[in-house]
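step: validate -> pass
step: tokenize input -> pass
step: predict -> running
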Amino acid sequence: MKNEFYDVLDRQVTALFTGEDDLVCAMANFSALLNDQLDDINWVGFYQVKNNQLVLGPFQGKLACTRIPLGKGVCGTAASTNTTQRVADVHQFAGHIACDAASNSEIVIPFVRNNEVIAVLDIDSPIFDRFDQDDQKGLEKMVKSLEFVLFG
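step: predict -> pass
step: emit ->
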């Protein structure tokens, strides 16, 4: 059931973003799409890699941390290792950066252009262990589709 949900969202990504070439515009609407479609989340958005740090990009949710050092916290770890970070309990993650005290779990997916991480997609939830393997697989597929539509 969850796989079908993400397959539908993935097809929407391709349909909505084909022909779009503005990165910020795409990130803004991608965040809005996820915010509208995902249950039990309290923040979704992007951090862009700029000058060896992550800088807040388009998002949906409450005010957020504006800058995160590469390698620090869940987002910085995902960016520096180019690996998805799925954290069931952010309070147990060494070096977690608490931008919103209501967040209890998180998934962060690297956003890549020409084999280089240029941003990360960050999704937070107030529910512990909100994101499972199916969520990770579906969200990673959507991010890859957005990368392909924007960058070829």
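step: describe -> The chain has one domain: 2-151.
step: cleanup -> pass
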